[in-house]
Amino acid sequence: MSDPKAQPYRFESTLTVLNNGLEELKSWRVFVGLQHDEYLVSASNAVLADGSSVPGLVGNGTVFAGYPSGDLKTSIETAGDLTQMSTRVDLLGDVIVSGQSQGLVQQCSTNIIADEVEQMFSQDKAAASMACSCGKPLGVAGVNLKTEPVEIPQRQNEKEHEFLLASMSQLPSTSSPTFASPVARFFLRSGIAELHIHEELEPERVDSFDLRTTQLFKLSPVHGLCISASPEAKGKTAYSTGIVVQFRNEKECSSFYRAFERAKNKVSAQDSDLPNKILSVSKSTFDEKTDPYSAEMYFHYYGRLLHQQNMLEDYVRTGTYYAAVTENQADFVGRVVVDVGAGSGILSLFAAQAGAKHVYAVEASEMAEYASKLIAGNPLLAQRITVVKGKVEEIELPEKADILISEPMGTLLVNERMLESYVIARDQFLAPDGKMFPTLGRIHMAPFCDQNLYLEIANKALFWQQEAFYKVNLTPLHEAASQEYFLQPVVDAFDEKLLVARAISHIIDFKSVKEEDLHEIDIPLRFVSTNDSQIHGLACWFDVLFNGSTTQRWLTTAPSEPTTHWYQVRCVLSQPLDVMPGQEITGRLHMIAHSAQSYIIHVTMSTELRGPGAEQGGNLQTSSAKYNLKDPYLRMLQPQGFSLAQDHKPDHDAQISLIEH
């Protein structure tokens, strides 16, 4: 078998070796190459702490697939000088080497640097993003080197992760370059991107840069400056390491800068103990449109079990999902399912119960760890479920899905903007004839009359009508305070008898809607009043349809049905409207998405002014307001009881008659 150094790909790692437990070895360089479906591993001479050297590993190895941990263990008997070790990869994972060499080497271990291994898979169906660390299994996206050998194309020295430099000098500068023939390589160690620069003929002499704290400056078309922050800086701006690198030409310089940015922007889901680890570029569609603080709080919220329990205990929600899956078992048997925003993993377990061939449970928050534990605790189902920690906008999966299942609904259906992630997952993962559970959603709207709610909100601002608050007149702020209170949409459960007109609906078909269509939603309003009353605002709720091949199931949050954890939403007008029976009410509901994962809502409602004084007041009375759905008034009432008998459907089913099974 040929020397790995002669292979098209060469990667390095360091073995930590104990010399009979007495003396730690340093700089044991390991070169890993690929030939067909085998790893080639060789180790150069190790260097003791005192500078003396010892022979490297020798002999052939036998591989044992350590499923389910994913470890590959090789027992080696050594006798002689440096040679190579052949390791057939039956199960991708960390290579853990243990050996004896006349009592000299007690144990050693290495982790193959996944960021470099990633290069080796050039075919589309074998392309993978990976991460690994010593002692942990290696996540893989559909690569089976045992049955599908990967052809490795020849690459030049300027390939993505390795660069031959003309020279490298330490700062402050000296009269001659520190390294005469330096090599620069990018690595990923335990989720941390690093740049290593070393002398080609002396690989143990390494300058290492943590890319989290490293800045790269272009000095000329072929010169660059790397400055790395000191680990002892403790939050202060203190730089301790700097080098000037010279490239052989402008093309290689540009390639290096691109590789530097790619490596710096890569993040890993491998910090947890999950068996599924995927590398992805940190800047995604989600990141570009989402405020970082909002995203942090969002994932923190859904990463807590108490909030997952709140949703699981919503028996309307959980029971309807369970019924939709089990009653349409034919859609799941033998199918690949992707659970978008899996949370606790409950929907993934439902899909596996229904006979899914495999389920990918995608979850970006720390709840992914709990989902992994919950799924592992159900071993009959766990073998068909893979937990993938990451955002759907960033991850890659090894195969297309036959079904997407998700619970992407927020308050008023669209709050939290997870519907957009659901649509992105559809475009990225769903097969052309695949199904979506849920299939579509409807926002329902109707004007309401609730004098008590109106007075409750108005009275909140009475505090600012005090003229002698500690001898201070607060009244100049009363109007502004009143406007603030009316800016908050009210989230609660209300009696449907408060509605003064028949509801209208706006349909969002998850199978066809474009992601950008959800950035701005404009709904014209037209109602006919059924009562002689005042209109205090617009009431909204939603429902979603699970359009299975066998049955249709509805999950509704209507005020006439058992209360869910979503409740309903009411936008209260600061200026009520007067209406009479049969009077037309027109207007508009306009929702604009913002970076805090929610919407600004504009409501305008108008009606003809009738009765005494109409001739002086014109022919229309109009009231409008703006609300921030991110900042609601949470005026929730106690949930009602619930029965699992949910065979009824909401009104307006005629609008869904054209939907195909």
Automatic annotation (TrEMBL):
<keyword id="KW-0808">Transferase</keyword>
<dbReference type="GO" id="GO:0005634">
    <property type="term" value="C:nucleus"/>
</dbReference>
<dbReference type="Pfam" id="PF22528">
    <property type="entry name" value="PRMT_C"/>
</dbReference>
<dbReference type="Pfam" id="PF25350">
    <property type="entry name" value="PH_PRMT_N"/>
</dbReference>
<keyword id="KW-0539">Nucleus</keyword>
<keyword id="KW-0963">Cytoplasm</keyword>
<dbReference type="GO" id="GO:0070611">
    <property type="term" value="F:histone H3R2 methyltransferase activity"/>
</dbReference>
<dbReference type="Pfam" id="PF06325">
    <property type="entry name" value="PrmA"/>
</dbReference>
<dbReference type="GO" id="GO:0035242">
    <property type="term" value="F:protein-arginine omega-N asymmetric methyltransferase activity"/>
</dbReference>
<dbReference type="InterPro" id="IPR029063">
    <property type="entry name" value="SAM-dependent_MTases_sf"/>
</dbReference>
<keyword id="KW-0804">Transcription</keyword>
<protein>
    <recommendedName>
        <fullName>type I protein arginine methyltransferase</fullName>
        <ecNumber>2.1.1.319</ecNumber>
    </recommendedName>
</protein>
<dbReference type="GO" id="GO:0005737">
    <property type="term" value="C:cytoplasm"/>
</dbReference>
<dbReference type="GO" id="GO:0032259">
    <property type="term" value="P:methylation"/>
</dbReference>
<feature type="domain" description="Probable histone-arginine methyltransferase CARM1-like N-terminal PH">
    <location>
        <begin position="161"/>
        <end position="265"/>
    </location>
</feature>
<keyword id="KW-0805">Transcription regulation</keyword>
<dbReference type="InterPro" id="IPR025799">
    <property type="entry name" value="Arg_MeTrfase"/>
</dbReference>
<feature type="domain" description="Protein arginine N-methyltransferase">
    <location>
        <begin position="442"/>
        <end position="597"/>
    </location>
</feature>
<keyword id="KW-0949">S-adenosyl-L-methionine</keyword>
<keyword id="KW-0489">Methyltransferase</keyword>
<dbReference type="GO" id="GO:0035241">
    <property type="term" value="F:protein-arginine omega-N monomethyltransferase activity"/>
</dbReference>
<dbReference type="InterPro" id="IPR057622">
    <property type="entry name" value="CARM1-like_PH"/>
</dbReference>
<keyword id="KW-0156">Chromatin regulator</keyword>
<dbReference type="InterPro" id="IPR055135">
    <property type="entry name" value="PRMT_dom"/>
</dbReference>
